[in-house]
Amino acid sequence: MKKFLMTLALSATAFAAFAAQPTTDDARSLVEQQAKIVLTNLNANQAHYQSDPAAFSALIRNEVLPYMDFELMSQVVLGRHWREANAQQKTDFTAAFRDLLVRVYSRGWTNYAGTPVEEAVKVLSATPVDKYQRTDTRIQVRDKNGKQAIVVFSLRFKNGQWKIYDVSFENVSILSSYRNSFDSEINQGGLDKLIAKIKTMKGDEKL
């Protein structure tokens, strides 16, 4: 279930809404519409994606990743280490972290393949847009075994569109979880060693 947090956060971004002013309706639509699009696509092509996982990864890269705020996510997940990193390290970390999230996304949909779209995702509420042009969208997700969970997506309106920058499950932020483990890794071996390790992570490691 935890891995679904990031996967759904990633999927939601591909329907990013462009508007002159940010509204909670746009944010809600982004989460709901793209989650349904990805599930529909997955359900219709399960056999193909099982035999060719790279095809699903390609879908993610082309339709989802352009709408993620990876720079902000990288800054948040590294914390003080981002400020201490040089330009090349920032570039390398952002690329490695982005690729890790692709792997997390690809694996995370396993429990939802075959689940009717109407049963898998239900948008519950969204907070008012704050002065920093942010909002949280709260949804209920149900896997193929009927297990339910509440997930909260944090979005920021940037350059005329909503972008996902964090997701929380049972009040636990995905970025905060990675931040704690990454901080420990950097303190022990340095940022370059962490970057090398992230490149080897399969995406199903426990946070």
UniProtKB/TrEMBL annotation:
Keyword terms of this UniProt record: Signal
Signal sequence segment: 1-19
Pfam families per record: MlaC
Entries under InterPro entries matching the protein: MlaC/ttg2D (IPR008869), Tgt2/MlaC_sf (IPR042245)
Protein name per its UniProtKB record: ABC transporter periplasmic binding protein MlaC
Species whose genome carries this gene: Cardiobacterium valvarum
